[in-house]
Amino acid sequence: MNVSRSRSDLWMQQPPQLDYCRKHLPPAAGFLPIPPNTERKVGGLRPGGARCSEEPKSRTRDDMSAVMITRKVRKWEKLPGKNTFCCDGRVMMARQKGVFYLTMFLIIGTCSLFFAFECPYLAVHLSPAIPVFAALLFLFVMAMLLRTSFSDPGVLPRALPEEASFIEMEIEAANVNVPAGQRPPPRIRNVQINNQIVKLKYCYTCKIFRPPRASHCSICDNCVDRFDHHCPWVGNCVGKRNYRYFYLFTMSLSLLTIYIFTFDIVHVVMRSVDNGFLNTLKETPGTVLELLVCFFTLWSVVGLTGFHTYLISLNQTTNEDIKGSWSGKNRVQNPYSHKNIIKNCCEVLCGPTYPSVLDRRGLMLEDISPSVTPAAPSSSNPTPQTTKTTAPLIPNEHTPDDTHKSIAASAEESPSPREERSPVSKVPPLASPETDAETSLAKDKAH
């Protein structure tokens, strides 16, 4: 018999404890034959006897579902505030548009009555240029109204979270020396414009220091540059970018109202010469309705136009006039006025058109990936885990010989769970010399 056996013979040799397990133990569901070059996932042995202490790097379904999914959206879809957008962000208005629809109805309705009842008679008896001029004036009024209502008044973008945190850090650093019981100073910064100190106030909603002449509109919930007022009749704020269109709208509407009111009176007078005044009113109910509408709207529209003409001549806004920012009581002069009516009017009405800083139709990325929560591993596909055991798993026939040695050694070292420990003998208490003598005498007597 050849004593020296090859490694292949040692590989095929089966240890006696494995044969015993195969005969007397039921087969385990998880112990399947594993090729020699593969690694066990749970606390097993690699080929060579090394233990697996790391999880295998494999991508699961949760990892695949956690991939970020983004899509491109327009910036107007994510803009804060209380504005509404139409036509893919080209039209910008306030949410409260009921009064704006009333303005449209009054203008269109009154002009329709004028073209239906007055223009046919006046074009024949006076001049055909009357309806032509009225049509041009009506188109100009509608154009200025829509331009004022649908344009960006000069909304300032809100600060990003990083910018807001940076501004807060600057403010906190400036208020370090304030005592604990004292109220911190107001958040104001001073700038100098034309040798005049102007205060820049901090907006707690937009998290920015507003530029000069800017204010926060409570209805639209936005900061507007050179804020004049919020006009419900046009359904929008009036600010730096649409103030000239608002003024042209009020002026042209005043002219249109005066024009219609004047020729309504002319129409009634010309017809009353032949038919009488009362009969004329009965024959032309549309004219009577136009006279009533124009009479009640004339004073308000003309008065509003005159008030804004006064403000333009001073290069002042409605908001500044209400607050009395540059009134003579405070002895503070308006740093924006040129001290000349013509120059002030040219700056407000003929100045450059400022671009919008919102970039409403710009593209941005939006994260639409669903929130992934770690789920418990299912029974069908358990998640691989790392365990540390003192005894290895039962090997198969592909286990190498050095593995057998480790199995035998571990079997000898680790006792079987079924084995019972021998009871520990109790140590008797220490005896005294008297008890020892008595026990010895008792033994002698018995002997």
Automatic annotation (TrEMBL):
The DHHC domain is required for palmitoyltransferase activity. It comes from Takifugu rubripes (Japanese pufferfish). The keyword Mitochondrion does not apply. It is an enzyme of class 2 (transferase). Residues 369-392 have a biased composition (Low complexity). The gene is zdhhc9. It is found in: Endoplasmic reticulum membrane; Golgi apparatus membrane. This is Palmitoyltransferase. One of its GO terms (cellular component) is Golgi membrane.
